[in-house]
Amino acid sequence: MDVVAALTGSTNPTDYLKKIRKRDEELGFYIGTVCPQVEMLGKSGKKRKVLAGKTEYIFRLIQSIPSKQAEPFKRWLAKTGQERIDEIENPELAQARMKAIYEQKGYPSDWIDKRLRGMAIRQNLTDEWKERGIQEHRDFAILTAEISKATFGVTPSEYKKLKRLPEKSNANLRDHMDDLELIFTMLGERMTTEISK
């Protein structure tokens, strides 16, 4: 409702959303099946259940809103989609984008180079594991934990605690490693790939 209210200026976002759902059956399906009711604190200070959705579904909702306020978001989504297609055709563009993101976050160039190299080494390792029949996310996590324990003496989740990263966040542990930690991680994963081969 907050998204609808912000992008339409409607005095009754509930009715506006109902109309959108009737007009766009696919969106109605999304909202009806993948947007759960989540208890949140309302303006009145009382908790109430409201529709919530993942970023993907919020973007889908924005695409369905015929409003001037939604247009900048729609243009951004179109531009981002075009960039991802360009990166599929030329993967170096994806690497350049990643490098630019890390630069914007204030990471030094030499750290960024190590981080990007570490990503390539990690990809080689996961490709090797896939060739050996590893498919489940849980199995990748177990193997990664073993490398981390051999390298640092702790699992990645324990390492996140040592780094004081929020448990429930999507924070990437490697983005919080210093140069030596990145080098040791790369070495551990590269050696694991070679041993596996």
Structure report:
It contains 10 helices and 2 strands; from the N terminus they run H-H-H-E-E-H-H-H-H-H-H-H. A two-stranded antiparallel sheet has the order 1-2. The protein folds into 2 domains: 2-87, no CATH class; 91-196, no CATH class. Helix 1 crosses helix 2 (13-23) and helix 7 packs parallel to helix 10. It has 197 residues and is mostly helical.
Structure, briefly:
Helix content is 69%, strand content 5%. It has 10 helices and 2 strands, in the order αααββααααααα. Strand 1 and strand 2 form a beta hairpin.
Q: From the alpha-carbon coordinates, what is the Rg to the nearest angstrom?
A: 22 Å
Main sheet makeup: 2 strands, antiparallel
Domain tally: 2
Count of β-strands: 2
Gross geometry: elongated
The assigned structural class equals: mainly alpha
**Spatial strand arrangement across the major sheet:** 1-2
The H-and-E topology, N to C, reads as HHHEEHHHHHHH
Number of helices: 10
Mean pLDDT value: 90
| Unreliable segments of 5+ consecutive residues | none
N- to C-terminal distance: 53 Å
